[in-house]
Amino acid sequence: MTLPLIVAKSLRQHLLSTVVTAASIALAGGLLMAVWVVKTQSNDAFTKQNAGFDAVLGARSAKLQLVLNAIFHLEASPGNLPWADYEDISTNAAVALALPIAVGDNYHGYRLVGTTTNLFAVEHRPGRKFRVAEGEPFLAGYMEAVLGSFAAQQLKLKVGDKFHPFHGLIFDEKQQHAETYVVTGILEPSNTPADRVIWIPLEGIQNMKGHDAKSAAEISAVLVKLKNPIAGRGLELMYNKQGNRLTFAWPIAQVVAELFGKIAWFDRVLALVAWLVAAVATGSVLASIYNSMNERRRDIAILRALGARAHTIFLAVVMECAAIAVLGMVAAFAVYLGITTVAAGIIRAETGVVLEPFAWQPIFAWVPLTMIGLSALAGVVPALKAYRTNVAENLVPVS
Amino acid sequence: MPLLEVSNLKKSYAAPDGGTHVVVDVPDFKLVAQAQVALSGESGSGKTTFLNLIAGILAPDTGSIKLNGQELAGLRESARDRIRATTIGYIFQTFNLLQGYTALENVLLGMSFGPGADREFAKALLKRVGLEAKLNHLPRQLSTGQQQRVAVARALANRPKLVLADEPTGNLDHTNAGESLKLIREACRENGAALLLVSHDREVLGQFESVQELAKLNRAAMQPT
User: Fold this and answer.
1) B59 touches A at CB < 8 Å
2) ω into residue A397 within 30 of 0, thus cis?
3) What is the mean pLDDT of chain A?
4) What span, in angstroms and rounded, lies between the C-alpha atoms of B165 and B51?
5) A97/A35 same-domain check
6) What is the C-alpha to C-alpha distance for residues A311 and A323, in angstroms, rounded to an integer?
7) Regions of chain B short of the pLDDT cut 70
């Protein structure tokens, strides 16, 4: 009871420095956890994200550009490929499902992606197909649209609403098409990039007024589901090594992992900054407690005069530093949630990939333990000063 | 057997000129259990140092301090702390109450390092000194006299065999000083503790049957400094 009482009293007596120091720990701890979670969850989410497909077939280009464009609906299309290439691959014995897509238009920045109704047969994860939650799927050949849940929410479009698409992948109000599309359905959330897409029949993109006439017989890419993922090796050899006209991006996870590999230095810099902030924060614990030692000398001397052993005082100071870190780490979870909620919102809006800030991560245990341990370690320096406090000299006055 | 037996006790400090300055040089001093003895001495006569040596706060250069039959002089600091926590109560001139702690918590701390916190006994002590209504008051919310009474209760909190009082009335007015001294003496008597009080106040010293002059006891005090 005595040690906790001494620690609690001291924290209260030095309330301002306790709050400021705990806040710096909260910032550092929150930042560390947020950087780590955003990094690992983004990595996981992107590399595991394939929207239900194993590969992408597209015009000759970098695999990464093809995947980003066809799966994540980012980046520009590397070019078109003839409809015949879709027919070839869709009849290949190794292919379970081939879904042609065509891009080139948007509605207020949200991409229109033309495809077939086979979209609704795709399992974006085992046992979960792209399902229309409200309304009906679009009908091939009609100017109908099914919106991804996020796109519908952001655009405030509902079933029955009509809209005019805009030409290009970037919104330009001067580029409005004359065609009028009607929203026939809204997909249930899939937590995939498909959520931020406006899906329309393939012919819609191909035949949109103002598009190049030859695009009517072309598509942007083919999303491929293989019967056996290993079969991708043969197709890769056929398209990438033996041919020079098309690119077969397979496996998708590896292509994305290469991207993360290229930007790994950025993660390391970010982590280093976070660790530096953590070091500064624990240093502030040391400085704050050490600087207050002069004003604490009398209290320490009184406690010693009452029979407190020097090591008890030492322990009390170390515990006080650890307690500041505990308080800070409690607040750090609020900082973490603030940062990750904002980051998850941006990542979802930009990529459709969903992060889960509330999902359990081992870092939620080891960052607090590390910060508390480092703070306790930082407390050793002022604790030694407290340990060596001269009792007689500080029990003033002397008669 | 005396409760406290001091022999050939010496304590000196380094002097600014590089030499040593002897502060305490007591060849012989004894105090029997439950006795109440006053030591008289002027400022600078080594009173506080003498009490701090007995309390184990300071270690002597040479000599012997036997408290309750146990030799203190050769003990390590932690062992002296332990004896102080269990055997000695200390009342300071400036009370030395912990400002962030309530009256009750100050008294509880007086027993925490020794026999352990006993909330009921702490409350009983504060009731005994007339502060049952001020248990949760901080020192700054108490008058000087009330603070002194908290200090008295705290000194008795560990059920000490010996209470050391260093100019305990030095910061009190005439009326409070008289009442406080009476309280200290009665409380020590009721709790079976011996009292060794140092003061230069003649009125205080006049209350004691046994008064010893530190100037005669302490050979260092006789020397010009």
Assistant:
1) no
2) yes
3) 91
4) 8
5) no
6) 18
7) 221-225
Query: Touching check for A15 and chain B: CB below 8 Å?
Result: no
Q: Do A100 and A29 have their domain in common?
A: no
Residue A119 and residue A189 in one domain: yes
CATH number for B4-18+27-95+161-222 (one of 3.40.50.300, 3.30.70.260, 3.30.70.141, 3.30.565.10): it is: 3.40.50.300
pLDDT in tens, A23-81: 999 999 999 999 999 888 888 878 777 778 999 999 999 999 999 999 989 888 889 99
Q: Where are the domains of chain B?
A: 4-18+27-95+161-222
Which of A221, A251, A277 lies at the terminal end of a domain, its last residue?
A221
Position A157 pLDDT exceeds 90: yes
Q: Does A273 touch chain B (CB under 8 A)?
A: no
Q: Which range of residues forms the domain containing residue A291?
A: 2-47+263-393
Q: What is the distance in angstroms between the Cα of B182 and the nearest Cα belonging to chain A?
A: 22
Q: Are A292 and A381 in contact (CB under 8 A)?
A: no
Q: Which of A205, A221, A237 is the last residue of a domain?
A: A221
- How far away is chain B from the Cα of A392, in angstroms, using its nearest Cα? 7
Nearest chain A CA: its distance from B88 CA (Å): 9
pLDDT band at A399 (very low <50, low <70, confident <90, very high): very low
In a domain, A53, yes or no: no
What pairs with residue A97 in β-bridges?
A: A225
Q: Which two tokens stand for residue A341?
A: 């909620």
- Are A267 and A389 members of one domain? yes
Q: What distance in Å separates the CA atoms of residue A162 and residue A231, rounded to the nearest whole number?
A: 43
**Interchain contact, A395 vs B78, CB within 8 Å:** no
Residue of B nearest to A298 (CA): B96
- Alpha-helical segments (H) within B56-169: 77-87, 103-112, 119-128, 144-155
Is residue A233 domain-resident?
Answer: no
How distant, in Å, are the alpha carbons of A116, A128, A220 from that of A120?
9, 10, 19
Q: Which of B113, B150, B161, B171 to mutate to test the interface with A (most CBs of A within 10 A)?
A: B113
Nearest to A177 by CA among A189, A166, A162: A166
Contacts of A391 in chain B (CB under 8 A): 52, 57
Q: Which ipTM value was assigned to this complex?
A: 0.91
| A344-367 pLDDT tens trace | 999 888 887 888 889 999 999 999
Residues from chain A contacting residue B99 (CB–CB below 8 Å): 13, 299
**Scanning every residue of chain B, which has its alpha carbon at the shortest distance from the alpha carbon of A12?**
B100
User: Would you place residue A1 in the very low, low, confident or very high pLDDT band (cuts 50, 70, 90)?
Assistant: low
